[in-house]
Specification:
- The chain has helices at about 1-30, 35-60, 65-90, 100-170.
- The chain is mainly α and about 180 residues long.
- The chain is about 80% helix and about 0% strand.
- It has 4 helices and no strands.
């Protein structure tokens, strides 16, 4: 229990530190030009991705149904994408020191990097969904098999008792003639 509290406090501390770092990087982003977007956006994207992955870990440890956890994860993924798009939009496209083609190339490169972060987050989310669904399905099937096994055990016990009753009944009628039981 103490370890769990310690880990939670470290996670909260790390998250607060990430938020502070992200805020400082966003301040730099406000004055950044498109030619600098890679060096300014990548660290912010890293923090956003890390926070999204931490959310996925916590979300899919929940015992709720897979469909509700999936819906929550998808909503959070949409929020993640929106955050990255908003950060990308903050970069100054009008860089007076650069020519148009250089700005356009930097814009395209930064857009591709943003899409790579989208893809990474989406892949991890889908992996979590598959893993969680498989685990929960396996657990449900295991519980069903255990229930069936328990019922079969009870039936086996009943059959064994019935056999014992028949053997007991047979031993109580020693003079019973088998020929009397034949059908005519």
């Amino acid at each position: 229990m103490i370890c769990s509290l310690l880990i939670q406090s470290l996670t909260v501390f790390a998250s607060e530190e990430d938020d502070q770092n992200k805020a400082a990087l966003i301040k730099q982003l406000d004055s950044a030009n498109m030619s600098d977007c890679l060096s300014v956006l990548a660290p912010i994207y890293d923090i956003e991705l890390k926070q999204f992955l931490e959310f996925l870990e916590v979300n899919f440890q929940n015992k709720s149904s897979s469909s509700s956890l999936t819906n929550i994860a998808i909503a959070r993924y949409q929020n993640f994408k929106e955050n990255l798009n908003n950060l990308f939009a903050k970069v100054n496209v009008n860089d007076a020191g650069q020519e148009y083609l250089a700005i356009q190339a930097a814009y395209a490169t930064c857009g591709e990097i943003k899409n790579e972060y989208f893809d990474k987050a989406k892949k991890v989310m889908i992996d979590h969904i598959k893993k969680t669904t498989a685990i929960k399905t396996t657990t449900i099937m295991l519980e069903k098999y255990q229930s069936i096994n328990s019922k079969l055990r009870d039936m086996n016990t009943s059959i064994s008792q019935m056999y014992g009753y028949f053997m007991s009944f047979k031993s109580m009628l020693p003079g019973f003639v088998v020929k009397c039981l034949t059908s005519g």
